[in-house]
Amino acid sequence: MHFNVIYFSVLKKKDFNFLTELDSIEVELESVELQISELLERQSSLNSRKMQLLMSLEEAGGSSMPSRSSQISRSGLSKQELQSYENSDFPWSKEVQEALGEVFCIAQFRPLQLQAINLTMSGKDLFLVMPTGRGKSLCYQLPAVCSKGFTLVVTPLVSLMEDQLMYLQSISVEAVCLNASSTKEHAKLVMTGMTDKHSPFKLLYVTPEKIAKSKLLMSKLEKAYNMGLLARIAIDEVHCCSQWGHDFRPDYKLLGILKRQFPKVPLIGLTATATSQVLQDCQKILCVPDTTALTARFNRPNLYYEVRCKNSQDEGPVKEIAALIKERYTDQSGIVYVFSQKDAETVSTELQKRGILAQPYHANMEAKDKSLVHRQWTNKKIQVVVATVAFGMGIDKADVRFVIHHTMSKSMENYYQESGRAGRDDNPADCIVFYGFGDIFRISTMVVMENTGQQKLQNMVAYCQNVDSCRRAMMAIHFDEVWDDDDECNQMCDVCRHGNDYITLDVTKHAQEVVQIVELASSLDEKMTPLKVLETWMGKGPAKRRKMIQVTSLSRSEVESIIVHLLLHGYFSEDFSFTPYTTYFYLKLGRKAALLKNSNHTITMKMRKKQPTASNGAVNLPLTFSLFSESAFLRSCTCQKVLIPTDTVLTSTVRPERLL
């Protein structure tokens, strides 16, 4: 019996040693994986810089390269061949130039427009990626006017069709549409016109659903094709084809039938936002293997980008938004984007109470009410539209001076497109995001079923939390564009305007405290929402629980910041739970949590050293998550002043080209 006890003790000691060594190996493996990840980041950064230098060398050597106003990529043609399409010596060039001035009342082409028009009129398949408001529609509308037959335009929303038809009718270009609300009489007239050699219209707008579900339409298109009357196919918002796109629509995946049935008809796909991956996906779906892709620069020099914090303790940003509109944008048109239909109603009511002419706009409104709001805003009868994303694609008002996001967008793609509705007249305009802790988790539960929803949201959060990288640079890198340097911004974002006066804080101790809370909950088989974790760490909840953890003395905003930082960097991860009525977001330990057991592992965060001052003298707080009080927090952290070069990789820093 005595022998058995000794033997059991030896085994327990041996098991303990094994477990200790296993823990040590796991921690070291996590560290190695982190180093590999950082090296891959560095590799990506170096490759980007290499591409930039090669382009500069070619320019210096006299080689013909795209201008800085446009970037041409992913082309099936050589550079010389592409450049030839910038010329005005084609058989149709005189007619195109005359139509530009006489029909569309435009003096000259914008970058890439003439090239795109010549390519599509030459019968080439083409993808055109161009920022919102830079004239994508002209690249198929003008060729339609100058071509025999008609152009088929596939567009995702009926409201887009109506906007385009109103515009074309105003310049005396005949255009028609077919959608679910079309009458039988109207549909019959359109179908007859499709096979009329003297076609009464130059453009036919349809939804993708119509292509997918109407055999009669496909039959008429086939007849028009055989008669040589189907001049070209334009796919508007082409990113909707791809599941990797930010606005995937299932019926768009069926549009490959068009090129299979009508292989000799040139196709032009248009979008404001598409990464390389999205375009490659669209190429396969639409059956256009030899596509030429023209990509305009994503940079909109006249737009000022800014991020502000939401104070979770007050009534929200409505008061600040109202003050901004009244003080900075008197009698100027703008859009306030909100998260939900309820928010649209509530925020518009609050703005009205503060003397601002505002109206809500969301998908649940009657069509006539939405049209009325749109018309009133266009004609300056109201100043502000408070809208969900339903007020989106195709909004074409040139003099929008501000786009304010009451809640951040769900992705960089969405934000770029929504903010891009400002300043289409090329005059200065502001794009401001109000960013709050709770919004992250509201949006996260909304996009949980999307293929890359969480990744895209984390990219948007990283954009909002950033305090040291030019916001334009982050956008450019996200959309696969080489960004030369921050000088291109010209201080047209809050980060560049306020300079690089930052400090870096060691928050390892605080990270260990909050990770311990989630670890404890897991051991007790409990789930904790981010709010519950926050409140527990701040000492709220049962006294028994408080005795088991280290309660923090940090402020609420500081606690929020650390939790989000740990989530973005993999120390926490998402855990979703579904009920018949809602989706819950819980925090669980992430893949990097084990690294905190390593005494050599540190976590740092960046913050502004001082609060920047707005041009009007008011203190402008761009981000709670980066503006820590210089009190308890600074006393409890190791801090130092640092000057951060643009290519420096700091421990646990989110870089714009990477999602963690």
From TrEMBL:
It is found in: Nucleus. The gene is RECQL. Residues 117-292 form the Helicase ATP-binding domain. Residues 22-49 form a coiled coil. It catalyses: dATP + H2O = dADP + phosphate + H(+); Couples ATP hydrolysis with the unwinding of duplex DNA by translocating in the 3'-5' direction; ATP + H2O = ADP + phosphate + H(+). Its EC number is 5.6.2.4. The keyword Nucleotide-binding applies. GO terms for cellular component: chromosome; cytoplasm; nucleus. InterPro entries: DEAD/DEAH_box_helicase_dom, DNA_helicase_ATP-dep_RecQ, Helicase_ATP-bd, Helicase_C-like, P-loop_NTPase, RecQ_Zn-bd, RQC_domain, WH-like_DNA-bd_sf. It comes from the Eukaryota. Belongs to the helicase family. RecQ subfamily. This is ATP-dependent DNA helicase. Keywords: Acetylation, ATP-binding, Coiled coil, DNA-binding, Helicase, Hydrolase, Isomerase, Metal-binding, Nucleotide-binding, Nucleus, Phosphoprotein, Zinc. GO terms for molecular function: 3'-5' DNA helicase activity; ATP binding; DNA binding; four-way junction helicase activity; hydrolase activity; metal ion binding. CDD domains: DEXHc_RecQ1, SF2_C_RecQ. The lineage of its organism: Eukaryota, Metazoa, Chordata, Craniata, Vertebrata.
